[in-house]
Amino acid sequence: MLNKYARAFFTRVLTPFAAFLIRKGVSPDAVTLIGTAGVVAGALAFYPRGEFFWGTVVITLFVFSDLVDGNMARQMGRSSRWGAFLDSTLDRVADGAVFGGLAMWYAGHGNDQVLCAVSIFCLASGQVVSYTKARGEAIGLPVKVNGLVERSERLVITLVLCGLSGFHRTFGVPGIQWLLPIALWVVAVGSLITLIQRVVTVRRESAEADAALARETADQGSGA
Fold it and tell me: Which residue has the higher pLDDT, 5 or 146?
């Protein structure tokens, strides 16, 4: 849902900025690479030290590159398979850095093995959720399901609640530090549900495709 409506809104907002970058000779691939580098740097420099507020600020500034590069490519008429591949691949890198940084915090000074494990699960399940759709499409299935928690939802829930929880350490706001564990559990459960939804969808579509192929083969045989 967020992917559908928020992306459309921010695409309109960021179109003038994308046009400005085009006039300056910046390529969409460069924006993708810089955006990913910024997210990775923000996540791994701040999150393992428990600086959730400033880490989230840095990550949020760069995460919008995911919308800017695609907008630039469309304006330039240069949308390509390579650009889509690069963007999707680096999205996985950025997601891994975010949840990896949180896992490092809980494995170290955060001193919470359960939340460390939940962070790692969020990292792994996010990768697998993306893989199930890509793999299903690769074998010729439409994979017509969005799922409960996609990448946009994972990022919004994690970054918003992580940034707010950082108010405890940065500004001394009491009690708010529990928002981050809540975010991790919500993303973990939502990702698991989404994974199940996609696996079930692929299984159903695969069975339907196999049945259609069997009918077609039988019709050809009877026609001969």
Answer: 146
